[in-house]
Amino acid sequence: MQKDFRLEWRQRAALNGMLLYVSSTVFVCYLSFSSRGGQLPAPAWNALFWIVLLFSAVNAVAKGFLQESRGRMLYYYTLVRPQAVILAKIVYNALLLLGLALVAFGLYSVVLGNPVQNVPLFVGNVALGAVGFASTLTLVSGIAAKATNSSTLMAVLGFPLMVPMLLLLIKVSKNALDGLEFEASQSALLTLVALNMIVGAVSYLLFPFLWRS
C-alpha cells in the first residue's frame, strides 16, 4: 500500500485526471439540466451519480495491475506473498474510490442540489460500493493483465460482475433519497456486505494461482 501511495503521489497526473473526469461530468450534467434551474429529479440524480462512480471506478482501478511491468511483478514475486499484493491493492483502490465518491457527492450537492434525506445511510452505502467496486475490479484487473488486449477484457469481465452489486447500491441510495429508515435497507446492505466478503475471499484464495501463471 505504501508503494502504491508513493507511486500515485509521484504520478499525480493520473489522480488529477480522475478528479477532472468527475468534476467535468458533474458540470456537463448541470449544463444538460440548466433549463430546469439546474435541479434534477431524484431518480435521475441517483442514476447519474452511480454512472459517474462506475466509470470513475473502472478508470481508477484499471491501472492497478495493468501499469505493472512484467519485471516489476517478478520482483514482487521474490519479496512478498501474493495474498499481501492482492489485499494491498484492494484496500488502496477502496480508499481511492471512496475519496472520489465523496468528492463527487460534494460536487453534486453544490452544483445539482442535495436531495438525500438520510445522509448517513447514503454515505455508508457509498462506502460499501467503493469496497465492492475495488475488490471486484482489482481481481478482474489482475486477470486482464495476463491477456494481450487487457483493457477490453477488463471491461467485458468487469461490468457483468458489477451489475448485481450496482442494482443493490441504487436501491439503497433510492431509500436514502426518500428518507426511509435503516430497517428498510437492512437486507440489501447485508447482501452488499456478503458480496464484498465473498469477492474478497475469492481474491485471497485464487490470486496465488493467477500470480504463478
Structural account:
The chain has 213 residues and is mainly α. Helices cover 83% and strands 0% of the residues. The chain has helices at residues 2-10, 12-32, 42-66, 70-79, 82-111, 119-144, 150-177, 186-212. Helix 5 (82-111) packs across helix 6 (119-144), helix 6 packs antiparallel against helix 7 and helix 7 (150-177) packs antiparallel against helix 8. The radius of gyration is 18 Å and the shape is globular. The model has no long low-confidence stretch (mean pLDDT 81).
Short account of what is shown:
By secondary structure, this protein is mostly helical. The protein is built from 8 helices and no strands.
Distinctive features:
213 residues, mainly alpha
Rg of Cα set? 18 Å
Q: Could you report the average pLDDT, rounded to the nearest whole number?
A: 81
The fraction of residues assigned to DSSP E strands is: under 5%
State the distance separating the first and last CA atoms.
23 Å
Low-pLDDT parts are none
Helix content percent band: over 70%
Order of helices and strands: HHHHHHHH
Quaternary form: single chain
Shape, per Cα inertia axes: globular
Largest sheet: none
Broad structural category: mainly alpha
Number of helices: 8
| Strand count | 0
Protein name: Heme exporter protein CcmB
Keywords: Membrane, Transmembrane, Transmembrane helix
Organism: Hymenobacter endophyticus
Subcellular location: Membrane
